[in-house]
Amino acid sequence: MTARKLSFACPVCGSLDIVYSCEPKCCFNHVCADCRASFQTGARLAGGKVAGVQPPDPLPECTDPAVACPKCESTRVYMTEDNRLVCAACGLLLELEITEVCPA
Description:
Elements: E1 18-20, E2 29-32, E3 38-49, E4 77-79, E5 85-87, E6 92-102
Antiparallel strand pairs: 1-2, 2-3, 3-6, 4-5, 5-6
């Protein structure tokens, strides 16, 4: 299965124009380019596993949305064709968590 880049909406305004504003494996702070709200991402296990996950081509840029797998801590988390999150490193299916929402 070929995955696609991680994408999710701003919890304040619903925009998909999200920028990851930190470095990988730090705090996962994101900022909405439209309303300037900031928030952090995390993931929890959703149950299930997928084999043979192929990363998207091209790979995400360093400012693209990101999250780490809670099991293996890899930041190679992408989306499946049916909009589920999957860790390309260990194959686990995940659910996105958005926390510490700070409207601008």
